[in-house]
Amino acid sequence: MTTDTAPPVLVDHVTRRFGDVTALDDVSLRVDHGEIVGLLGPNGAGKTTLLSLLAGLRTPDAGTVRLFGGDPRDPASRTSLGTTPQETGLPDTLKVREVVDFVAGHFADPMPRSEVLARFALEDLADRQTGALSGGQKRRLAVGLSLVGRPRLVLLDEPTTGLDVEARHVLWQALRDYHADGATVIVTSHYLEEIEALAQRVVVVGGGRVIADDTLARVLDLVSVRRVTLTVPVGAGAALAGLPGVHDVTEVPDPRGGVRATLVAADADVCVRALVERAVPFHDLEVRGASLEEAFLSLTSSAEHGASSAAATPAPASAAATDPTATEVAR
Amino acid sequence: MSTTTAPVASRTAPPALRSWASLAWLHARYQFLETVRVPIAVIGNLLFPTLALLFFVIPQDAITSDPAISTAAVAQLATFAVMSSCLFTHGTGVAEDRAQPFDTFVRALPARPGPRLAGRVLNGLVWCYLALVPLVVVGAVFTAATLTPLQALGAVVMVAAVAVPFTLLGMAIGYALSSKAALAVVQCTLFPLAFAGGLFMPPEVFPRWLDALSQALPSRAARDLVVQVTSGVDASALAVPVLLGWTVVLAVLAVVAVRRDEGRRFR
């Protein structure tokens, strides 16, 4: 039975496998009333599997999932839950207002249709068949459907993937408004920008596990790694792994001689300064922001080593600027 | 904008599920709406039995001048109309819905599977009755077919009775196969069953071996019972047990198909 004091989401030591693939590996997560949580991770990290367990679409192999204290597989536990169809998943022949009314028909106290349309700037499209909507309009309607039942918990799986900047901001504002009304929101994304715009707390998943679970600011520090690329003579590569703040070194032979090494570093400034101090004979230095994918990889490997050096203390000045060949591409 | 309704957090107890009947009615209405928005699918289904009556029965004076034979001719095409509506609505319709991501979204809404299924069955039944309208009108105007009020009432009840086994057959196909395969299987099932069941040609003209085989088919049993109710020609004693037997078999197949589908997609 659902109770009002139980947290919206309680995931306790949940494991879920698909054949040989372990999508979730002993994951525990608690989300309290009024939180807005970003679930961040590369594709295949287990985000969607986690949401499908919360929506009652799948069962865990081990562990328990609770929605307001009830089993999400029981439809009675889902009266306070809002989810969204995938972008391509609207019935083509139904009109926008009909789809909204259909979903509203499942709830005892739904949001009035006019309010749903207003929140997502869809008023002018009420009589349009969904098959005739643009990608952005479909996406807005899909996210709008998640709020039709006035849910206390909203699950959004990559809500703005493939949208232009303006449409993205309309959606984000609508979600922030709804959260401000007192709802709990969980949003998945593999865009850092989306998580930054929406979330207060960020849970990073990778390889089916929770790698980090912290405030937005802390997680931004964790994933703000840099890629430092440079060429060194053959044999000098071993010294690179020992540099301060370096998580990962990959080397490929450079056709012009020597080895082209790529370092993933929490703090490029400290790293470059150490390169100079230790007189490593490098040339062709490049520094740029790492992609989120690379940041996750480094986070995953540092989590495996049991170290949290990713959050190393930042250096005061930019050492990269002292090297004329350095270019830094801001994230 | 957010001031138009009470803040979400002010609600206390979790809301209850909506009633079974209102959810079933909701799903029936929207499935009907979705079907009716694709007119070609509807028209083909509605007109085929009527066209068969116009082309193959109306030109034959020997049939149209005899009330009993006319009524039987309309009754067997009516049985075909019901069978065809059920197989298309549930066979291809279910398979197509399952391919839609929206189906997954609807599953996460707060409703049990029962009302959804009931809504689907109700929608299928409405299409059975709609398919009979042009057929009955043409039969009444151009043939000597007649029904007493009691027979007419019996015919209305028989539509629902005949729809049961064929709804189950449709669901067994729709939940077991992809939409392309389901369409092919529905067609390959519908026409042989209809022909061998005496829905196009009366069983009286069948060779003896076909008549014997025909007795074991659900389409023949359904046809004989509809003819009995509408024209008073007694069906064979086997018709009721055959139809009930098939209903049980098809119910098992349908349940197995639904379970397997759930297991594959949502376990």
Give your account of this protein's structure.
The complex is a heterodimer of chains A (331) and B (267). Chain A has helices at 47-54, 96-104, 113-119, 135-147, 165-180, 192-198, 216-223, 237-240, 268-277, 292-304, and strands at residues 9-18, 21-31, 36-40, 62-67, 81-82, 153-157, 184-189, 201-206, 209-215, 226-232, 246-253, 259-265, 283-289, 328-329. With 331 residues, chain A is α/β, with parallel strands linked by helices. Chain A has two domains: 9-221, P-loop containing nucleotide triphosphate hydrolases (Rossmann fold, 3-Layer(aba) Sandwich), CATH 3.40.50.300; 225-329, Alpha-Beta Plaits (2-Layer Sandwich). The longest helix of chain A is centred in the middle third of the chain and has 16 residues, at 165-180. In chain A, a hairpin with a 2-residue loop joins strand 1 (9-18) and strand 2 (21-31). With 267 residues, chain B is an all-alpha fold. Chain B has one domain (20-266). Chain B is globular. The chains are: A alpha/beta (331), B mainly alpha (267). At the A-B interface, helix 2, helix 3 and helix 5 of A face helix 1 and helix 5 of B. Chain B: Pfam families: ABC2_membrane (PF01061). Chain B: Its main location: membrane. Chain B: This is ABC-2 type transport system permease protein. Chain B: It is found in: Membrane.
Brief synopsis:
By secondary structure, chain A is of the alpha/beta class.
